[in-house]
Amino acid sequence: MVHLSAEEKAAVSSLQGKVKVDVVGGETLGRLLVVYPWTQRFFDSFGDLSSPDAIMSNGKVKAHGKKVVNSLINGLKNLDNLKGAFAKLSELHCDKLHVDPENFKLLGNVMVCVLARHFGKEFTPQVQAVFQKVLAGVANALAHKYH
Amino acid sequence: MVLSPADKTNVKSTWDKIGGHAGEYGGEALERTFASFPTTKTYFPHFDLSHGSAQVKAHGKKVADALTNAVAHMDDLPGALSALSDLHAYKLRVDPVNFKLLSHCLLVTLACHHPAEFTPAVHASLDKFFSAVSTVLTSKYR
């Protein structure tokens, strides 16, 4: 459960409405694969990941990035019960995808950088702090069913 | 992790672009670190950490100046950062996990102020550079 004050919720809502999911999603996943190349281990079927340009323009990366960020945004609607909201996805990531939860933290931090890039000064330290809190909550929820 | 020639070029050109703003960005990165990761404040009980604090600005400038020096000596980071490495190991003893937190907030600060320059390749190079600096600063811990 992530506790946000009224002010914090307002900060999230105002930015959330302006987030272009397809753009942010593709850029977030793409940057994860560029900055932390070992994360490419999960995406052998995605085709050409041989250079930053290839990764950022890869259609499968963009599509999957959009899927992931959509899921994160849905999480924002369930702050009172993140563990419940992400239970099925947690099982999937453990049992089928075999993703080390450390990767959720990496992705979350890359997303913060992408939001900073898009929103500039609007992405104040206070707004960043709220997103870090929420993304940490989502990462924990996604790791919760691991065994 | 080794800095490639391309990484060094990316870091140098980013630092040139930052110009005289390095100090200001250092302060902002610290403020972001304290806001997002409150445990980091435990190292500054003697500071006023409120928004606009002169102490945070001054300390941010100190951090930025050290990074500027590191950028100028990327071929010998252990040499350039030796005194700071001693300081962190024997006096400050900041837990190693915190270097990642500050490094992340430095990236966020740069992304905010230089969105066009902060390409994926530059993002990667900067992350590697901050990681290399952090490694040197914690190298004498034990």
TrEMBL record, chain A:
Pfam families registered for this protein in UniProt: Globin
InterPro entries noted in UniProt: Globin (IPR000971), Globin-like_sf (IPR009050), Globin/Proto (IPR012292), Hemoglobin_b (IPR002337), Hemoglobin_oxygen_transport (IPR050056)
Keyword Metal-binding among UniProt keywords: yes
Organism: Mustela putorius furo
Keyword annotations from UniProtKB, A to Z: Acetylation, Heme, Iron, Metal-binding, Oxygen transport, Phosphoprotein, S-nitrosylation, Transport
PANTHER family attached to this UniProt entry: HEMOGLOBIN FAMILY MEMBER, HEMOGLOBIN SUBUNIT BETA
Record GO terms (molecular function): haptoglobin binding; heme binding; hemoglobin alpha binding; metal ion binding; organic acid binding; oxygen binding; oxygen carrier activity; peroxidase activity
Cellular component aspect of the GO annotation: blood microparticle; haptoglobin-hemoglobin complex; hemoglobin complex
Name under which the protein is recorded: Hemoglobin subunit beta-like
Domain Globin: 3-147
Similarity-based family: Belongs to the globin family.
Top-level division of the source organism's lineage: Eukaryota
UniProtKB/TrEMBL annotation, chain B:
A Pfam short name: Globin
One GO CC annotation: blood microparticle
Keyword Cell membrane in record: no
TM stretches of this protein: none
Gene3D superfamilies (UniProt xref): Globins
GO molecular function, one term: organic acid binding
GO BP field: hydrogen peroxide catabolic process
Stretches assigned to the Globin domain: 2-142
Entry superkingdom: Eukaryota
Keyword annotations from UniProtKB, A to Z: Acetylation, Heme, Iron, Metal-binding, Oxygen transport, Phosphoprotein, Transport
InterPro entries registered for this protein in UniProt: Globin, Globin-like_sf, Globin/Proto, Hemoglobin_a-typ, Hemoglobin_oxygen_transport, Hemoglobin_pi
Binding partners and assembly: Heterotetramer of two alpha chains and two beta chains.
PANTHER family recorded: HEMOGLOBIN FAMILY MEMBER, HEMOGLOBIN SUBUNIT ALPHA
Annotated family: Belongs to the globin family.
Name of the molecule in the record: Hemoglobin subunit alpha-1/2
Gene: LOC101673656
